[in-house]
Write the structure tokens for this entry.
Amino acid sequence: MKAHRRNKLIAIISGLALLSGAVALILYALTENINHFYAPTEVKEGNAPLNKTIRVGGLVVPGSIERSGERLYVEFKITDNQSQMIISYDNILPDMFKEGQGVIAEGQLVDQNKLVATKVLAKHDETYMPPEVEASLQKYGHPMQPRDGDESKQPSDKY
Amino acid sequence: MIPELGNFFLILAFINAILLGTLPFYGAHTNHKGLIQFAHRASTSIFLLMLVSFVCLTIAFIQNDFSVAYVANHSNTQLPIYYRISAVWGSHEGSLLLWVLILTGWIFAVSSFSKSLPAEMTARVLGVMGLIAVGFISFTLFTSNPFERTLPFIPIDGADLNPLLQDFGLIVHPPMLYMGYVGFSVVFAFAIAGLLQGELDHQWAKWSRPWTTVAWIFMTLGIALGSWWAYYELGWGGWWFWDPVENASFLPWLAGTALIHSLAATEKRGAFKSWTVLLAILTFSLSLLGTFLVRSGVLTSVHAFANDPVRGKFILVFLAIVVGASLILYAIQSSKVRSKSNYTLVSREIAILFNNALLAVSTFVVLVGTLHPLMVEAFTDGKSSVGPPYFNLMFSVFFIPILLLMPLGQQINWKKDDLPMLLKKYIWWFVSCVVLALLLTFGLNGFTFESLEPMALLGTILGLWVIAGTIKYIQLQSAKGKTRWAGMRKISRSYWGMVLAHIGVAVTTLGVVLTSYYSIEKDIRIEMGETVEVEEVSVYFKDFQNIQGPNYISSKAIFEVSSSGDFIAELKPEKRRYNASQMVMTEAAIDPGLFRDVYIAMGEPLNNGAWAIRVYYKPFVRWIWLGAIFMALGGILAMTDKRYREKKFKKKVSEEAVSNGQ
């Protein structure tokens, strides 16, 4: 075999080896690190696994935010307008976190009704609703009306 | 009136783009001088038209013209003037207009700095960029027109710019990033033009290289600025979240980094030509994919814009057309491209091949993690996300060999080298890096090897190894001169650029590793007048004030941070409530330092005037961005190498001579 042919062959074989190694690793790492999303109703029905990192999402129930007063620890409820569940969080809540706002919490379920969150996502943009939350509201509850009736004031961004 | 003018100029720019995207191709094909010349004029005019259009929108913001829907939604009379201007690109429609303006800016730049290129080549390059402009201007015009009016109900005041975006970082971050994203369209256009022409010689790589490097510099700085902004503005001390939108910018950066290296092999040795062209196409495709991910809102991200499915579909179709058409062209034409492959297994060509393979796989890994939720949703109807542990693990697996091989790759000769000899030169340097890393992590770990993280040690070794290897490279290269100094001066500017950029990679690596493993974060309850100890530092709550900002009211606390009696800094974190949106913002206070940051963010007010605050001690966190600055400086050195300038100069002179002779 000529030198450049041999080089090409080696390049192709090592490329393939690298790629298949990468794919195997990806598949392994993915199964370990996928966080499935559940709506509160699905959690209540027992469809979500305990003690495994998952994501839940819904609207923050107005008046449900309880702070400990001593530490950052906070508990609040989220809803898909059918079921509610409790989220606990021991961290500074994101600035966009508000009652009635759609949020996503990532963490582990300690029982059928409570998730200990390691991360709470609320959006930069206050008119934005996470697609997961939107979908679960469509499925289990009625999508919430736009807050404060500010729709008329903000014609763009919504179609 | 002014918004209508802006809209009018945008439409003119659209027509201009259509002309630019068609006529020059015909001109290049038939060798029609007039049409080729037309490409240059159309490039100038499209840039001017977009500039006027953009200025019109800016004026609407400055004048608080709330009859324009976009202005009404993203500005406010109380907003300071500089944020009114940056609000132009504060949301979807305006940032798209900025995007198009930057694209036409690149077109103008290519047209101005391409005197040394064959005329038909330039015409084709500008034509391809014109077609891209057609796509983006029609996207702006038909789905996201920033000039739309709110008539007849004009709001009295605007809804305000999102307070998170009222910040210096956000004034500069999007334009930088867009410069990078769009900048990769230049090398893409070169690749397509080269394929159309059917010839890709080393000249082609030589022209494409500086353009790619400029785009890469902007991309590097844009990503670093975004990371820095997230660090100080979001209030939780994180600097990278593997968020889909961050990944969207990281993907073209990784591919672009691979492209820079393969272009080097193509220019210097005529190797990997068809791969380089493919990489150029892929890099720009990833830029477009990034745009799609950001604009469509298909993925849950902290960057989400209010989303509209029409926009997502438009970009997706555009992406499909661009990628599909260029890959078909590639499939047809790439067999005409002949690479030279007169190199052996131990050569710089192979080193670059490794670099490219590893970077390509890294890109692939990030791509899979980013798109996986979409695939799951398409096939199972379930929703999911991929956690940072996936990215951290997978990315390090492929980045470790990159760092390990980097010093050797710099030094190895083109064509053929002696591997045992090469290793022999470096072995002691590597050993000393291991010793130094052991000492450093030993110190940071609190002078004990107990529970020392192996990854922290490994990362430190690799970071030091790249720096040491680069110093060794300079030593070896400069030994070729008569004196050390003469040898140093013989190293060309582009090699100094490489040296600096690689040191930048090492600095960023050290920052990432050390801050990840040795940061301290603690939530404390603190009352006024109280002192609380957080590891080595003590925090004293000195004062508390309510102050009135231009468009917000703020609760400001004053803390004195000291370490074993020595005063370190006075930190003044704030909680701001913005008047128009009633949104609350945490403004963290940071005492920056080369070796550590002290960072305080205010949490919630507790009983008896006490506050919950969060204190971070972050060693080496600045190095993350410092490294990016080094990389960018390295890029600047590389692209201003004299072989790019000289050529142009000579060419210009000879052209002038010719034209004078006529």
Observations:
- The CA atoms of residues 34 and 82 of chain A lie 26 Å apart.
- The longest strand of chain A covers residues 102-111.
